[in-house]
Amino acid sequence: MSILPDIKKIADETAPNLIKSIKIEDIRHWKEINKDNPISQHLYFEEFDHEMTGVSIIAFHYNLDYPILPDGCMSISPYYYFANKYYKHYNPLLQELAVTGRIKILKDTHLKSLANLSGIGFYGKNSIIHNELFGSRFIMIALGIYEEIEWDGLNLVMTDCGSCQLCIDACPTQALNKPYKLDRNQCLRHYMLTGIEVPEIYKSLMTDRLVGCDLCQKVCLKNSKKSQIDRMPDYDQEVFGINRYMEEGGLTLNDLMPPLAEWVGKNYARANRVKEQCNIIYNNIRKGGEQ
Ligand code: SF4
Ligand code: SF4
Questions:
Q1: Shortest CA distance to 88 belongs to which of 10, 192, 4?
Q2: In angstroms, what CA-CA distances link 275 with 179, 248, 254, 257?
Q3: Which of 136, 193, 230, 244 has a CA positioned 20 to 30 A from the CA of residue 33?
Q4: Which amino acids bring their CB within 6 angstroms of ligand 2?
Q5: Ligand 2 atom nearest to 127, measured from its CA
Q6: 126 pocket-lining for ligand 1 (C-beta < 6 Å)
Q7: Which of 158, 160, 167 should be mutated for ligand 1, with most atoms under 8 A from CB?
Q8: Distance (Å, rounded) from C-alpha 26 to C-alpha 111?
Q9: 241: Cβ–Cβ under 8 A, 6 or more apart, which residues?
Q10: How far apart are CA 118 and CA 20, in angstroms?
Q11: Which of 127, 216, 217 to mutate for ligand 2's pocket (most ligand atoms within 8 Å of CB)?
Q12: Which has the closest alpha carbon to 60: 89, 33, 32?
């Protein structure tokens, strides 16, 4: 029996989802005849071995609506909350399936290119993939497949943005001035919890954000349809109160990381990086209070 129903079952238990599966030979052939296409240049095959027949891309829908932020708290993008929550659910189940040798969880594949080629969605000028079902509010993973299944054909339409440029105009740092291509060095998100030194001019623009920006997604008309799932829970003031990270109240920063990791995942809850971002947020909140 095909592996697809097993994958679909895990996906359905995780969140509303869309799955597309494309053949490796179709991807290779497309890349061969589209060498100059920017998507083609992102497609690399290091993780694809000779036995792999194709790739399934799963898009898990999440709700981008932010809860109200209590005074003195820092915010996170719901993306990180849902990515962490979904990962905890699907990852052990997919790992179990991977032991059978019928799938492989791909970790180093250019998800956006595969998503566009597979028909999961179109490239937005904000450099994020969107579709009619979920807008751009989804988290993607890719699985290598090792058998013949019912494949989807390749999607050859890169974008449906037309003349819209709401996201370009909304970006406070002009990171999207070359449509469809994010200039990472100008994107606020690129400097949050990554350990990369934050340019002085970007610090005040980060306002109260611990991780995530989302301005270029919030304005996108593709996201105007209400999400059918609940938004992330209200901010826990014990976890998001900025003073806890500045004064520590007898606790070490390391003590504060596990509760934060429950929201954003262990990869982002790293004491030094959190502290650096908290310094920025603390100054922004203080300056806001002085105005
Ligand atoms: S805001 Fe407009 S241009 Fe930007 S991704 Fe959405 S539809 Fe495309
Ligand atoms: S996440 Fe923010 S800074 Fe980055 S491109 Fe979008 S709007 Fe600009």
A1: 10
A2: 34, 11, 10, 10
A3: 136
A4: 126, 170-171, 173, 175-176, 182, 187-189, 213, 215-216
A5: 5
A6: yes
A7: 167
A8: 16
A9: 70, 72, 73
A10: 6
A11: 216
A12: 89
β-sheet with 103-106: strand ranges across? 17-23, 54-61, 138-145, 103-106
User: pLDDT band at 290, cuts 50/70/90?
Assistant: low
Q: What does the block give as tokens for 74?
A: 């820092």
Q: What gap in Å lies between CA 162 and CA 127, rounded to an integer?
A: 14
Residues 174-198: pLDDT tens digits? Answer: 999 988 889 999 999 999 999 999 9
37 exposure class (CB count in 10 Å sphere: 0-12, 13-18, 19+) = middle
Ligand 2 centroid–CA 174 distance in Å is 8
Q: Which of 207, 177, 196, 178 is nearest to 77 (CA)?
A: 207
Q: Are 261 and 267 in contact (CB under 8 A)?
A: no
CA 238 and chain centroid, separation: 25
Cα separation, 59 vs 7, whole angstroms = 12
Concatenated DSSP letters of 119-185: TS-EE-TTS-EEBTTTBT-EEEEEEEE-S---PPPPP------TT--HHHHH-TT-TTSBTTB--GG
Q: How far does residue 130's CA lie from ligand 1's centre (Å)?
A: 9
How do the domains of the chain map onto residue ranges?
4-145, 166-290
User: Which bin fits 84, alpha (ψ -120 to 50), beta or left (φ > 0)?
Assistant: alpha
Q: What is the pTM of this model?
A: 0.95
